[in-house]
Amino acid sequence: MILAEGTSEEVEGWKILVPEPQEIVWSLIFLVIFAVVFIKFILPRLNAVLDERSEKIEGGLKKAEEVQQQADQLKDEQEQELAAARQEAASIREKARADGAAIVEEAKARAEAENERILTAGRQQLSAERTTAAAQLKGEVGTLASDLASKIVGESLTDDERSRRVIDRFLDDLESSQTATR
Amino acid sequence: MPTRRPREIALNTADATPNLLAEGFEFHTPSISEFFPDAILFGGTWFEFNRVQLVRLIILVVVLTVMAVIASRAKLVPGRAQSIVEMIIEFVDHSIIENTLGMREGKKYAPMLVTMFFFILTMNLAGVIPGLNLAGTSVIGLPLLAALWTFIVYISFGIKKHGLGGYLKHETMPPGVPKPIYILLIPIEFLQLAVIRWASLTIRLLANMVAGHIMLVVFIGLTQGLLFSGSALIAVAPFSGALAIGIYGFEIFVAALQAFIFTILTAVYINMATSDEH
């Protein structure tokens, strides 16, 4: 393409500010075509894309906010549940401790009662046995005393040697009879 | 003039005629005629098609095709090209519309303002695209029509909102001014409303693009002239070449800046016309 050399003859300076008809005609054609194509086709298409994008971004932000809200709510609920659970656990523990104490108390009481009962029974048996033994002994002492008296009477009690033997024998008898009664 | 310091030559060449300089140095002085090329087609009719229109047509076809392809393939997860386009749209939305009209009120005008920004930006950038070399906005037609588009939009929305009389009062009679001042203020404000706004939009854009083009031509032409001068001036060529590249970068910035200024002023004018009170 040739560089802008212009016409060979000089052009007067004022002409630069005064449009010629052909200049206006072509300028108008170009401007109108450009404006119509731009405003009717190019810009609506581009703006649609731009709007769609900003809408999508806004939608995304909104959704993110919603999700955040939900998450917050869930967290709150969870915390509440956790607190309730903790409280319940504490109360259960408390109850268990109280129950345990009660059980121990009861066991202790029962053991004491048993102890008492056994002791009482033992004592009763003991006293019964003692009574039986005393009665038996009383009877036996009578017999023994008569036995001894008869033996003493039967033997001469002058001789010391003899009397000692008699007593020894008596005691031996007593001892053996005592083992026999056992 | 070999005794001169090279830097001064570089700076003074634009207004010096070629024969003042060293022998063998040829420099094409740019002029206004750059912007009035010969007709390619339909010469002499109202449809005279010249190089300027060709540049505009190429930009129009390329931009619309590329944008249509990007738009029809637009996905939720953007590719690289789509990201860049979306970045520009969001720049207009946030830096221009939100700051002047507010997002709620501005939504109504957003398509127009975005279109305007893309149109002026791409037409401006034609000035730095090698091969095209001329901004589509560096001849008065496009800046003028774009400015008139702004004018029609703010006038019509203003009248729609306040009614004709109400709108004129709204724009030309700012409240809180002593009554006698209105004698002075009303004509000025009316002139501003009816002419100055769109005229200044047109001239600001046009003059920036014309000046940018001439600067580029001057420094690139100068570099070439110096480089092929066959004398000691060749040593200066790198400096002017570096300057040319610097100005080239600056022109890219200006292209974007002018598109931004044009669009934000349009938004401001619409806001002034449709706002409830000053």
UniProtKB/TrEMBL annotation, chain A:
Protein name: ATP synthase subunit b
InterPro entries: ATP_synth_B-like_membr_sf (IPR028987), ATP_synth_b/b'su_bac/chlpt (IPR002146), ATP_synth_F0_bsu_bac (IPR005864), ATP_synthase_B_chain (IPR050059)
Region described as Disordered: 68-88
Signal peptide: none
Pfam families in alphabetical order: ATP-synt_B
Functional note: F(1)F(0) ATP synthase produces ATP from ADP in the presence of a proton or sodium gradient. F-type ATPases consist of two structural domains, F(1) containing the extramembraneous catalytic core and F(0) containing the membrane proton channel, linked together by a central stalk and a peripheral stalk. During catalysis, ATP synthesis in the catalytic domain of F(1) is coupled via a rotary mechanism of the central stalk subunits to proton translocation.
Gene3D superfamilies xrefs: F1F0 ATP synthase subunit B, membrane domain
Species this chain originates from: Brachybacterium halotolerans
Membrane-spanning parts: 24-43
Compartment(s) of residence: Cell membrane
Family of the protein in this entry: Belongs to the ATPase B chain family.
Keyword annotations of the record: ATP synthesis, Cell membrane, CF(0), Hydrogen ion transport, Ion transport, Membrane, Transmembrane, Transmembrane helix, Transport
Subunit (UniProt): F-type ATPases have 2 components, F(1) - the catalytic core - and F(0) - the membrane proton channel. F(1) has five subunits: alpha(3), beta(3), gamma(1), delta(1), epsilon(1). F(0) has three main subunits: a(1), b(2) and c(10-14). The alpha and beta chains form an alternating ring which encloses part of the gamma chain. F(1) is attached to F(0) by a central stalk formed by the gamma and epsilon chains, while a peripheral stalk is formed by the delta and b chains.
Domain of life: Bacteria
Topology within the bilayer: Single-pass membrane protein
UniProtKB/TrEMBL annotation, chain B:
UniProt topology in membrane: Multi-pass membrane protein
Top-rank taxon, per record: Bacteria
Signal sequence interval, chain numbering: none
Transmembrane domains' residue ranges: 54-72, 109-129, 135-159, 180-199, 211-236, 248-270
KW Nucleotide-binding (keyword) present: no
Chief site of localization: membrane
Keyword Membrane: yes
Localization of this protein: Cell membrane; Membrane
Pfam families the record matches: ATP-synt_A
Family annotation (InterPro entries): ATP_synth_F0_asu, ATP_synth_F0_asu_bact/mt, F0_ATP_A_sf
Keywords from the named record: ATP synthesis, Cell membrane, CF(0), Hydrogen ion transport, Ion transport, Membrane, Transmembrane, Transmembrane helix, Transport
Cross-referenced NCBIfam families: ATP_synt_6_or_A (TIGR01131)
Function: Key component of the proton channel; it plays a direct role in the translocation of protons across the membrane.
Family: Belongs to the ATPase A chain family.
Protein name per its UniProtKB record: ATP synthase subunit a
